[in-house]
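**User:** Everyone, produce a chain:

**Assistant:**
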Amino acid sequence: MTVPCVRAPREEGEATRQELADADLIDDAYELTVDEGELYIPVTDPDAVPADLEVVSRPVDERETQTTPADVLGFEPSYERLGRAALLDEDDDERAREIADAIVASDLPLETVLNKASKVKGETRVRDWDLLVGESTEVVHREYGCEFALDLAAVYFSPRLATERNRVAEQVVEDERALDMFAGVGPFVIPFAKRGADCVGVDVNETAIEYLRENARRNGVADRVTAIRADVTEIDDEYANWADRLVMNLPHSADAFLETTVELAGDDCTIHYYDIQHEDDPFGPGERAIREAAEPEYDVSVETERIVRSYAPHELNVCLDVRLER
């Protein structure tokens, strides 16, 4: 079967395999292959592979000993993987239980199966889960060399944004000052700190802040991370004119915090502004809101307009990388 693979020189193979494993991108259903001094590593999502690695399509063998959930069920179930957990989104309880049993019967290295029991709700954007397999809703997720502990029932976390978070993290330089206004368990803050930035993460969710502190310790960056449990509008005085980089990943209502953003921004600051807008004009509303809040105090320039993913019919989750220069 032809599948997407990362091709690497054999002498770089183990380092490349480890990098892909850290990002949870290796497709365990297929064998790794060596051919003419090149290692081919099957991957689950070629779009999420770091830009410095080469992706090719190549015939590879399926792992003969691998029993998949599809083998047990007779159809391909839909689920996300987060650490050693499988996340289902099934309305039918019997079907959810059938899929959970098939995951347990398979050879996948999964210990927990959860089914979504509500939509994201409330100020902290958490959801209810039905625990079908396992002992708790707490998981440990690895992403681009970082490790995150989190409780899915108590904090918000989306594994689908891994590629986007890595894109932003690769822009960070040593000794810059970065502030995540809605930090959660630290998926932006931790990789920023690993690149040498002095980081502040703010969140109203006390549990998320506790995990952020734990994740800073797990990843060896506790000395570069300050975690603050607060509404970000409450920290204006302490961090006024402080940030070289601001992350605003609250796409339904980030525009309501732009006055605070201007207070926190330093003389030369990059903002990563996340928004959800209609496909006819996905970037215009965000740019106009930023200009209204920042001009004429700052010169405003939009450096990147990026569609992160489709959110709903005719609606897009987008990011604007915007530079403010006083």
Remarks:
- The mean pLDDT is 93.
- The longest strand covers residues 265-278.
- The radius of gyration is 21 Å.
- The chain has nine helices and 17 strands.
